[in-house]
Amino acid sequence: MNQINAHSDSLETDWFGLWYKIMKERGDNDCPSFVRINTQTLEKFEMNFSHSEMDGVGALYKHYVLDRGIPIPFPAHREKSPPNFFLLLKSFFAFIFLNKKHKTLWKESNWHLNPTGEDAKKFSYEILSTECTMQLENFCKKHSLSLNSVLISIFNAVLLPQLSINKKGMWTIPVNLRGPIQRQDFTSNHSSAILIRVQHNNDLSELIANTRRIQSNIKFKLQRKEHWMIWSIHHIGKYLGYKFMRWVSHQNAKKSFVLGSFSNLGKWDLPPGEIWVGGPPGSRNYPLSVMIFQNQNQISLSLKIHPFVLEDQSQVPTLLKKIVEHIMGLH
Question: Is 44-328 in CATH node 3.30.559.30?
Answer without folding.
Answer: yes
